[in-house]
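Project standup — Tuesday

K.O.: blocked on the structure for the chain from last sprint. Re-posting the sequence here as requested.
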Amino acid sequence: MTQDALFRWTLRIYYEDTDAGGIVYYANYLKYFERARTEWLRQVGINQVEMALEYQAMFVVKSTAVDYHLPAQLDDELQITTTVEKLGRASLVFVQEAWRNDQCLVSARFKVGCVDAQSVRPCAIPKTVLKAVQQNISPLLLN
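H.V.: unblocked you, prediction finished:
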């Protein structure tokens, strides 16, 4: 992973994010990671609504693996990092982490597939979308 391929998105932890113990409820990290992937797509010029309308294609999560290292708490400011680890013809693998200052709280890997918006069957990533992704990932993934 090259530093320039790393996307950062900041969020604040609110009361609604926490459980009875005052720590972030574990499933909320999936929401944070989803939002960060969406913001990464926006940054590289991909609007998911337009992608579905123009190309009849959309991204869906196929699988995920999450490791919880340390808890986040009320009012923490987190940096969610996102990078593409692997790019295929019809899928991407994202590596994402939630950081508080210099502590990695949660790390995750998501396999995201491209599917036909009507049939929800796998399809190739549209060429224009693929090109936008290729321009914003580590050059090592293109070899």
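K.O.: great, moving the ticket to review. The chain has a mean pLDDT of 94. The radius of gyration is 16 Å.
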